[in-house]
Amino acid sequence: MISLGALECTSSCIMTALSLFGLNPQHFLLAYWDINYHRGNLLSSRNPYYHDLRPFYGIQKSYEEQETLEPILASIRQGHLIMLRCQASDLSFFPRELLSHDAAGFDHYCLLTQYDEVSQVFHVVDPIASHIGVITIEELVKASMAGGKLYYYEIDRPSDPFHCPTNASLFRIGAEMNYRSVFHNDVSGLRAFDQFANELELSAQWDVAERDSWLRANTITVSSTIKLRKLVWDSYTALHVLEPVLHASLASSVKAIVSNWTRLNLSLIKYKQKQDTQLISNCQQVLFRLRELEKQFLLDLREAGLSLETKIG
How far is CA 218 from CA 14, 209, 273, in A? Predict the structure, then answer.
């Protein structure tokens, strides 16, 4: 079971599924350098619809909407895994102290791995809740049925032989996917920094309770981003394809990025504690510095990937 932290239920489920399939889940992180501003939260996570597992694993992932459990049961019987959308507060095993984002309307996902025909229960893995167990049909339907439908992703078990790309190709593919996600994103990407900076400006007009809740939620998501930035870079380092000088340069960039994310978190915490709107400009300065650091890093990472491709050719 692999957990990446707060609001990373889909990526945690996918990596856990890859591990259950006997694949290297770390390759998934190669294309997971992202940034979004969604429902008042600055996030490094990505909409699961855009996770593409084919370049790294040759695995199909499809989004489904069904009115009954039969299609889910049929998929599980074929050896596929189901990443089911649900309401965390309706899951008996989900820790109450982790429900801070549930009220904000964030979807939660857990992984269905098997179905016991005799006991009529599903085997469930919930990485965020650190839970491996079973769930009855009744509880599952209550937690996941919305508007008369079940919403989920089917993660197909690998079937045809798949020739994994070379490490150099994996590096290039991941770097290119990150570049496109952040630079060519009509919804968020780099503009997430500007969206958050604007929201910081507006927060001066909010009442204390609203501002406190927003800041608390974002210190959690920023902490998660700090963890993920390190993990994504570790996935590149594990490929061992960069020359020492280039690796050291990129590693230095990541160190500066992580340091500034940490500085942003401390600035948000200080703003939350003192409720002094004069501190907004401090947060914004760090935010704009981060924007430039991340932008340059992704350009350098992409260039490194292209240089590897040239060497292969």
Answer: 24, 14, 14
Query: What is the C-alpha separation between 15 and 235, in angstroms, rounded?
Result: 13
Average pLDDT score over residue span 168-188:
88
Burial of 240 (0-12, 13-18, 19+ CB in 10 A): exposed
The answer to whether residue 235 scores a pLDDT higher than 70 is yes
> Which domains does the chain carry?
60-155 (3.90.70.10), 167-312 (no CATH)
Residue carrying structure tokens 């704009």: 288
pTM: 0.90
Residue 78: the pLDDT is 93
Distance CA 8, CA 108 (A): 9
In angstroms, rounded to a whole number, what is the distance separating the alpha carbons of residues 155 and 160?
A: 15
pLDDT number for residue 312: 56
Token pair 């965390």 is found at 88
Contact yes or no for 25/13 (Cβ under 8 A): no
pLDDT band at 6, cuts 50/70/90?
confident
CA distances from 260 to 184, 217, 225, 234, 293 (A): 24, 19, 11, 18, 9
pLDDT value at position 188? 72
**Phi and psi at residue 232, in whole multiples of 5°?**
-65, -45
Task: Taking residues 273-278, report their average pLDDT.
Answer: 87
Residue pair 245/304 in contact (Cβ under 8 Å)? The answer is no
Nearest to 109 by CA among 53, 39, 47: 47
